[in-house]
């Protein structure tokens, strides 16, 4: 199998590492490199390489932007490269998408290249591969839509709260009370509306009137009649509804 390969990475050292490993492979007949997303789009459209090693985190135009701009139908087989962005890795693993985590070993690179060659040798799986990549990118896009900071209006000023600092959130009629380690902010928004904008991998609804930051959970103890008590790292104790089984499993897995 003779292949043409495009390597896209804004870091010259990382790009050279991939180029060096590719030159050792007798199946690679042509290698092109790009240091930014826009030139990558132009190279893919002009050269139609068989395989692309595509860095995710690039300024101006990310690897995901490159994929969307070129289009799923015209995009070559792709191995995504990431500097260990855990959410990206989970999305790729869940959808069987090839990826490399920087810094990677020679063996890990060889494994990713072999998988890519195997998929290229089976054109009947191309549609399935595209479907998997679309699902992975959709998962990443949803992550980008989640709040990282919450603006809260207080009198004539706006206070910004980092979601990582939130301990838990309590529903209070048409407002929510955002509990931080040292203070509480009131926000005019419904619990349901705010919950949709929070990353479900970080926030879990343990009761109809309470959402917790799972990263700040200290312990979960059984109570009675199927209920549990969640203790936060501030010492705050919250009752978990017996109907919140999914949230309970998520919290338990964190403690193991």
UniProtKB/TrEMBL annotation:
Entry GO MF terms: DNA binding; phosphorelay response regulator activity
InterPro entries (UniProt xref): CheY-like_superfamily, LytR-like, LytTR_DNA-bd_dom, Sig_transdc_resp-reg_receiver
Keywords annotated in UniProt: Phosphoprotein, Two-component regulatory system
Residues bearing the modification 4-aspartylphosphate: 55
Highest taxon in the source lineage: Bacteria
Pfam families (UniProt xref): LytTR (PF04397), Response_reg (PF00072)
Domain called Response regulatory: residue spans: 4-117
Domain called HTH LytTR-type: residue spans: 150-254
Protein name (database record): Response regulator transcription factor
């Amino acid at each position: 199998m003779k292949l043409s390969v495009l390597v896209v990475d804004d870091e010259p050292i990382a790009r050279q590492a991939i180029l060096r490993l590719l030159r050792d492979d007798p199946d690679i007949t042509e290698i092109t490199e790009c240091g930014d997303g826009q030139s990558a789009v132009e190279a893919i459209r002009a050269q139609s390489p068989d395989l692309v090693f595509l860095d995710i985190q690039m300024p101006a135009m990310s690897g995901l932007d490159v994929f969307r701009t070129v289009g799923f139908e015209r995009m070559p087989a792709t191995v995504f490269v990431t500097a260990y962005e855990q959410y990206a890795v989970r999305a790729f693993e869940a959808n069987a998408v090839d990826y490399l985590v920087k810094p990677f070993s020679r063996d890990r690179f060889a494994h990713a290249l072999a998988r890519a060659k195997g998929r290229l040798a089976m054109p009947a799986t191309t549609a399935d591969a595209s479907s998997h990549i679309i699902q992975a990118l959709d998962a990443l896009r949803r992550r980008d839509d989640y709040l990282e900071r919450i603006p809260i209006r207080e009198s004539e000023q706006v206070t910004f709260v980092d979601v990582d600092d939130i301990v838990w959130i309590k529903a209070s009629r048409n407002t929510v009370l955002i509990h931080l380690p040292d203070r509480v902010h009131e926000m005019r928004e419904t619990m349901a509306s705010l919950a949709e904008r929070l990353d479900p991998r970080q926030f879990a609804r343990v009761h109809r009137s309470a959402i917790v930051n799972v990263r700040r959970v200290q312990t979960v103890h059984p109570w009675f009649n199927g209920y549990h008590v969640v203790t936060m790292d501030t010492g705050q104790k919250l009752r978990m509804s017996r109907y919140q089984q999914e949230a309970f499993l998520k919290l338990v897995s964190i403690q193991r």
